[in-house]
Predict the structure.
Amino acid sequence: QVQLVESGGGLVQAGGSLRLSCAASGRIFSIKAMGWYRQTPGKQRELVAIIANGGNTNYADSVKGRFTISRDNAKNTVYLQMNSLKPEDTAVYYCLAVAPRDYWGQGTQVTVSS
């Protein structure tokens, strides 16, 4: 089992920044990749960014150039730095660990006001 605890969501004005954190515990040696998804009411959860153990990253086109995913292996934590936030970034953001089955965090709300 892998447990994920997210933090860092909140309310921010358009153009502002937030940093999300996700700390993993449990069978962390089995984690192959970690990432972030987001979901708004009535829509499917969508990939925001993901980082593999080797450091390869993948981003949704909508966040490229604005969001940066990073990982601190010593702290078993993945971060999502979100800059130039837009109202359409408003969503519940979920942390994912692929270990190799998917484990999800509880979600953290990000609200961007216009």
